[in-house]
Amino acid sequence: MSNLVLNLTKPGDVATKLQLNLTKDEEFKVLLSWSGKTDLDLHALVTRSYGDGQPAKASSFDDVLSAYNVKRNIRGQEVGTLVRDADGSFSIHDGALVHSPDVAEGDEFIIVRPSKLIIPTGGLIEIPLLAMIHPQGRGKTFSSVEDARVVIEDGDGNVLASASLSGQFGPYVGVQMGSVVIEQTGSSFATVGVGFNTDFNGVLGQFS
C-alpha cells in the first residue's frame, strides 16, 4: 500500500500569498523551532518552472538543501554532495540558500537570498520548505512534538508569517509549510499545508 499524502485544501481554495516586498539584495530567514528531544529537520529545494504548464521540478542534487545531502562517510562509503562549512552550516547555489548547523534539539533556519538565483525566461523559481521528523524517531508524528512552529522573518528580524505545526499537522511525520515563489516581478510566500507520512526520499520524489 502506498503512503497517503493529504492536501489540506478544499476545491476552489487558492493558496494564500504573502508578498515579501524584498529589495534587490534583501534576504529573509525561515526558522523552524520546537521543544523537547524529537529530532526535526528543515529542508528546502530549488525547483524551476519554465512557463510550459509543467510543475516546478528540481533537476539535480545541487538543488537539494538538506542535512541528508551533506558529504559524510557512512560505513566506508562517501555519500552526499554538499560541503559543510567550519561553523556547521551548508549551502547551495553559491549561498542563495544557507542552512544553519543541523541540531537534534532546538532551532534550525534557512537564509534565502532571491537575488542570487537566476529565474528561467518566462518561468519562475519555487522553493518548497519542508519540516520532517528524522526517521529514527519512529512512531512519532507532529502531535508528539512540542511547540513545533515555523516563522518567516525579513532581514531586520520582522516577523512576516508564523504558523504552528503541532496542531493542524499532528497526524503527519512531514509537512510542506509553504513555498517561496520568485518571479521577475518579485518574491512571495505561498502557504501550502500538505502533510506527508513518508520519508524525505518519498517527498523528494514529488519534486524531481
Structure characterization notes:
Strand 15 and strand 16 form a beta hairpin. The chain has one helix at residues 200-204; strands spanning 5-7, 17-19, 28-35, 40-45, 47-49, 64-65, 72-74, 77-79, 90-92, 97-99, 107-112, 124-133, 146-154, 159-164, 174-183, 186-196. The chain is mainly beta. The chain is globular, with a radius of gyration of 16 Å. It has 1 helix and 16 strands.
Summarize the structure.
The protein has 208 residues and is mostly beta strands. The protein has one helix spanning 200-204; strands spanning 5-7, 17-19, 28-35, 40-45, 47-49, 64-65, 72-74, 77-79, 90-92, 97-99, 107-112, 124-133, 146-154, 159-164, 174-183, 186-196.
Any key phrases for this structure?
208 residues; mainly beta; 8-stranded antiparallel β-sheet; 6-stranded antiparallel β-sheet; 1 helix; 16 strands; disordered N terminus
Write the layout of secondary structure elements.
Elements: E1 5-7, E2 17-19, E3 28-35, E4 40-45, E5 47-49, E6 64-65, E7 72-74, E8 77-79, E9 90-92, E10 97-99, E11 107-112, E12 124-133, E13 146-154, E14 159-164, E15 174-183, E16 186-196, H1 200-204
Antiparallel strand pairs: 1-16, 2-16, 3-11, 3-13, 4-6, 4-12, 5-12, 7-8, 9-10, 10-11, 12-15, 13-14, 15-16
